[in-house]
Amino acid sequence: MNTSNSISATTSVDGILVQLTKMGHEQVLFCNDAKTGLKAIIAVHNTVLGPALGGTRMWMYNNEADALNDVLRLSRGMTYKNSISGLDLGGGKAVIIGDSRTMKSEALLRRFGQFVNSLSGKYITAEDMGISPEDMVHVSKETNYVVGLPGKSGDPSPVTAYGVYMGMKACAKMQFGSDSLEGKTVAVQGVGHVGQYLVKHLTSEGAKVFITDIHEATLKNVADTYGATVVAPGDIYDVPMDIYAPCAMGATVNDDTLARLSCSIISGAANNQLAEEQKHGMAVMEKGILYAPDYAINAGGVINCFSEVSGMSLDWAHTKAEEIYQTIYQILERSKNEGIPTYQIANRMAEERIERKGGLNL
Question: Is the pLDDT of residue 338 over 90?
Answer without folding.
Answer: yes
